[in-house]
Structure prediction request, 221 residues.
Amino acid sequence: SLFKRMKIKNLLLVVFAAFVLCGCAPKGIFVSLPDEQAPSNISKKTKIYIESVKDVRAFENNPKQASTPSLYKHNVNEVSAKEKQKYIGRTTNGYGKGLWNVILENNQNVSSVLRSRIEEAFKENGYQIVKDKSLIDENTLTASAKIDKFWSYIALGFSKVGLNMDIDTLLSVKDKEIKTDLKRSEFYFLVTNDDFSNIIKTSLKEYKEKLAKQISELNLE
Prediction:
C-alpha cells in the first residue's frame, strides 16, 4: 500500500540520517578484488601484448548524476590522475547527497583490475599473454584499452535503494575495436559495505565473460 511504502522510505531516511549524525558511518568503503585465475591450457600460438589500459573517466565536482565519478571532500581538479584510479564509487545519505568514497585497496587500481580481466578474456580464447615488451615477436598482437566507465553508486527509489555498477571500455587490437559495456542494478532496503563489494565483483565477472565472447567472434589471427 502507499502508506506502507511511505513508512519504509521514512525508515530508510531515519537510518541514513542516524548514521550521519552519530558519526557511525565509515569515511570510506574499502574494496579488495580477487585476482583472476587463468586456464593453463593454450590452444593457439598467437601471442598478445596489452600495451596500455588507460583510465579516462571524467570526474566532476558536485555532479547532477550519481553515475558521474566524484570525490568526497576533495576537489577533483586537485587530485592526481594516479590517485583517482583508486576511487570506484560513492555512497549517499537518505536524501541522495553524495557521501563517502568507495576505494580500492591492496595497491589495486582501476587499470590493474580491468587489465587482469582483459588478459583473462584473451586467455580463455587460447591466446598467450606477453607481459614483457622485449618478448614481442612477429606472432604477437598488440592491444590497448580505454576505461570510460567504472563506477558504483546509489540511486534512491520510492521503497528500495538501487545499487548500481557501470563498466564501459574500448579495446583496440589490430584494425578492430571492441566496445564492452554493462550496467548492473540490484535493490535493497538498506545497502551495506558488502553489497558494494559484491556488485563490483559480480559486474567484473560479467564483464570478463562478455569480453571473452566478443573476442571469440573476431578473426584476429
User: Anything to note?
Assistant: The radius of gyration is 20 Å. Strands lie at 28-31, 47-55, 87-92, 98-104, 128-129, 140-156, 161-173, 176-188. The longest helix spans residues 193-216.
